[in-house]
Design brief:
The chain is of the alpha+beta class. It contains 15 helices and 21 strands.
């Protein structure tokens, strides 16, 4: 190993000698990796190709002991730290320039307790890993909709998916977590141990430590479920949205229905003449008996004159990965997000107008219908700030060529601004882009001040700052 220059918390740099790096390596099961070495690019490369950051040093962890050593190494030297789990965060918060990257991606164990209906999950686990293990026992907990997403970032930001209306957010099913705090101690967080930290982890992101293990409550579900898509011509978008809005207002918790507006990809069940044309997609999943689900979705199927209806029985593991081909790594991505209490006529009109100006074939407007069980949890029961949102909008701007950056980002920002007056002001923190840090006060609402106090208790120097950062203010420290 050779000496490296690494960025410190105050923006200066420190020199780490070869002997010091060798001593660090001797404490690890994993590996210390420097630029140019095997595994470096794999560790620093994340899902969003607009992020191209180069840490000075990477610790590729194999277990909690490695995480403890890496955090202590950084804390003792005041080093800039980023923590990468799945690497799927659109803002690229899992990596930094010139600092220390703590890479958790190799920690991918899932242990299911079938009798207790619980799962112990390491932070490098993807949703695909999780689904395959839990669905082997016809069990699940609410997670996201892209199988390559990491469980860690998803959970710490709140987490929602196809079963959220029935079973709540991912964090509503979190029983406990093992956390390496900023001083390098491993602690357990639960309702009975470090309860303030447990509260903050459920929606507050990676601000409070490095989670090395999650314990989740599981629910009986699958392995085959009623799910699928109904695709409509974009010319019918206004009518489809209006009727969708009326339908979901009466839908039971078991049914989740989301809307996607985009150019139709070359899906095998779509007639070839529709490939590349703008469409409105209703995506549905039923968390209950399939015969009951068929009755519930019948009115949804009577909306308009669809191009195709492929709702039917599907393996849940397959349905969870159904959107993967549209979300492969390596593309350039920029997101903007709003929470809505309702979709008014005026809001729908703006949605349709903006969807008619998609800047590239891969861009989409995505509306997740929530409510149900997640809305019945008290707003201050967890850090998550969006309990009042019945709909979450993601303006998903996606393209391939860096020359299109300015045009695509401008479209997303214009759409965001045009729909802001209809929103609640909160937002799903996992959908925030790199330039959205100023929205955190509104995103967390009344919970923000408490989060700042807990941050000051567990990370007063703000070691964990490469995230949607909640700063430990002097006021917060005094209050604590």
């Amino acid at each position: 190993m050779t000496e490296v220059s690494i960025r410190t918390l105050d923006g200066a740099s420190a020199q780490i000698g070869a002997d010091t790096l060798a001593a660090l390596q001797a404490t690890l099961r994993g590996k210390v990796v420097l630029p140019g070495e095997d595994g470096y690019d794999q560790a620093r490369t994340v899902w969003n190709a607009t992020i191209d950051k180069r840490p000075a040093l990477v610790v590729r962890c194999q277990g909690p002991a490695d995480v403890i050593q890496a955090v202590r190494f950084a804390a003792e030297r005041d080093l800039l730290v980023a923590v990468r789990a799945g690497g799927h965060n659109v803002a690229g918060k899992g990596v930094c320039d010139d600092g220390l990257l703590i890479d958790l991606s190799a920690m991918r164990s899932v242990r299911v307790d079938r009798a207790a209906k619980t799962a112990w999950v390491e932070p490098g686990v993807t949703l695909g890993d999780f689904d395959r293990e839990t669905q082997a026992f016809a069990l699940t907990t609410p997670v996201g909709i892209n199988s390559t997403t990491g469980i860690a970032g998803l959970t710490l930001g709140g987490g929602f998916g196809w079963t959220t209306r029935k079973f709540g957010l991912t964090i509503d099913n979190l029983i406990s977590a093992d956390v390496v705090t900023a001083d390098g101690d491993l602690v357990r967080a639960s309702e009975t141990e470090n309860a303030d930290l447990f509260w903050a982890l459920r929606g507050g992101g990676g601000n409070f430590g490095v989670v090395t293990g999650f314990e989740f409550r599981l629910h009986a579900y699958g392995p085959e479920v009623l799910s699928g898509l109904i695709v409509h011509p974009f010319a019918d978008a206004a009518d489809v949205l209006a009727r969708y809005r009326a339908f979901v207002a009466e839908a039971p918790d078991e049914l989740t229905t989301w809307v996607v507006m985009r150019q139709a990809p070359p899906l095998p069940f779509l007639p070839a003449e529709w490939h590349g044309r703008e469409v409105v997609i209703l995506a549905a999943c039923y968390a209950g008996d399939m015969a009951d689900g068929e009755k519930v979705v019948a009115p949804l199927r009577r909306i308009g004159t669809p191009i195709v209806d492929v709702i039917g029985p599907h393996p849940f593991v397959g349905w969870q990965a159904a959107f993967d081909p549209l979300l492969t790594p390596g593309a350039r991505n920029y997101w903007k997000s709003h929470d809505f209490k309702e979709l008014t006529d005026e809001a729908c009109a703006e949605l349709v107008a903006s969807a008619g100006r998609l800047p590239t074939p891969e861009c989409e407007i995505f509306i997740a219908g929530l409510g149900g069980a997640m809305a019945r949890v008290a707003p201050d029961a967890t850090a998550y700030g969006g309990r009042a949102a019945n709909f979450v909008l993601n303006v998903h701007t996606r393209w391939q060529d860096a020359a299109d950056d300015e045009r695509c980002i401008a479209w997303a920002r214009e759409f965001f601004a045009a729909t802001e007056r209809f929103s609640l002001g909160t937002a799903y923190v996992n959908f925030l882009s790199e330039d959205d840090g100023g929205r955190l006060d509104d995103t967390y609402g009344p919970n923000f001040a408490r989060l700042a106090r807990i941050k000051a208790k567990y990370d007063p120097r703000n070691l964990f700052r490469v995230n949607q950062n909640i700063q430990p203010t002097a006021t917060a420290q005094a209050a604590e």
